[in-house]
Every structure is written in C-alpha cells, then in structure tokens.
Amino acid sequence: MSYFVRRTGQAIFTVFAVISLSFGIVRLLPGGPADYLRAQLIQQGGTISQAQLNQRIAAQTNLAPDKPLHLQYVDYIWQVLHLDFGTSIWYNQPVTEILGPAIPWTVFLMATALFIQFVIGVSLGAFMAYREGSRFDVGSTAVSLISNSIPFYVIGLLLITFLGYRMELFPTGGRYASGNAVALTNPDFLLSVLYHGTLPILSLVIASFGGWALTMRGNSIRILGEDYLRVARLRGLSERRIAFRYVGRNAILPMYTGLLIAIGFMFGGSVILEKIFAYPGVGYYLIQSIGQRDYPVMMGAFMLIAVAVTVGVFIADLTYGYVDPRAKGGQNSESY
What we know:
single chain; 14 helices; 74% helix
C-alpha cells in the first residue's frame, strides 16, 4: 500500500512539475508567447487599449498579465487542471478542440504499429533463440540489426517516394478518402482508414521490429540455459509446453516495462511521422504549431506527451509485480 501511495505521489508530482515548467516557459522566458502575442497585437494597429491587450493575452494563454505572478500561477494551474489550455493563435479555436479529435488518430496509428512490431519481434526472436547459430539465426540477426539501425523517418521517406509518388500504390497524405461517411459502421470508411494508415504503420514496423526481436532472442537464450528447463525435460514435459509456458513467458516479462513505456511515448514518436505523411494527429499539429509559433497548441501537446509517458511508467510500476510475482518479493518493485 505504501508503495502504491509513494508511486502515485511521484506521478502526480511529475505531472505537476511539467505544468509548472510550462507556466515558466510561457510567462517568464523573454520572447515567450505572452511577449509574442503582445507584439503581434500591437503590430496589427487599431485603438486597442492596455486592458483589452491583457484580456486578449489572458484568453489565449490562460495568463492575466495585470495580476501578480503567484495569482497568475494559481489561475494557470486551475485552468490546466480543467483541461483549458487556451486558444490557438493560428486556428483561433480552443486547444482542446484541436488536439482532442486528433488523439484517437494518433493512438490508432501508433498502437497498431506497436502491436504489429511487438508480435513480429517476439515471434522472430523466439525462433532465432531456438535456432541459435544456424543460418536462419545469423541472417535474421543481421536483418534485425539493420532494421533497428535505420530511423523510421528514413524508411517513411523511402516508402512515400516509391510506393506513394512513383508507383502510386498508396495515398501520400490524409487520414481517409474524402466522400466517405465518418462512421465505425461504414466498411468503406474503415477500409479507407487502413489504406491511408498503411505506409506510416509500415515504416514504424520495419524500423522497430528488429529491436524487439534482438531483445527476445537474448532473453530466450538466457532462459534456455536455466537448470529448471533441464528438469522440465527430464520430467517428460513436451517441448511445446516448455517453449510457451517456461521460455516464452519468462522471456517476455522483462519486455513488459519497455512495452508500456513505448505506449506512453506514442504521442512523442508521432511528431515527425505524421508530418512526413501529412497525417493530422497530435504530432502533426505539434510540429505545425512550432513552425507557426502557436504557443498554446505547442504547450498543450507537450503536456499531453508528458502526461502519457508518466501514466505509462506509473502503470508499469504498479502492475509489474502482478505480471512477475518475483518482483513482489523485493523491497523495491520498480519495473525499471
């Protein structure tokens, strides 16, 4: 119980620290969004008064320049806790109305890619371990190393150039074809979503399955040398039961934490990918906001990424003891 309370407190403190840091960046840094907005509004001319100027800045950044700093801080924390991240300078819409609809698309893209690469990586790594030293193992290890060494955005650029523009086999942008009714019960819409997401997902899978495969191979080889496997064989257990129940299960356990942290990082990892494929998700709006100096959207996306990573690590810490009961025996059951 004390461990749960301690980890919960650490997670809340981390999120609180991120929000406080975003306040410092927004309010205190010279040339920050408050100053940028002030300069922009003054350049627009007109007869805007100082009070109107402060009101416009407060509406877009959740900061009231005419209030004392500590009151600004309290107001900012209060607004963020109520999911009010201000108004976009570029789109002139609340940040939640921009990022909220984009979240499911990013989750679909990154979660699908993560699931496929994990399944391929674990299966391939297990076969490599069972055939250690064979041509299959040597060849698969080389392919996995090459796959793990190439950044996903390089593979994405190659895919979009050859399969998108030259061969015109897949679309080069968008989330679905225009003209389809957006409904989960519409099969044409679902097929269009899969069709548009193929290249981004494929680039992530090609770039990442090698890392999972190499990790699974190493874990499996270590476990294959354990004494309890020899005992299991002497007891007459089938190889299939030994492979799935003893080797596979124990080899996957150390990868559990990495999987949950990868889920937490899915929003951050989508930034370049969604820009390359013009896929309007959280990463797409984040990189656009950086180019347009749209600070409210930028800070909202940063906080979303930080909270996702914190929640991923938090869940990994709390559940690792249940997945691997050996972790409960120690004084510290942190999963990393």
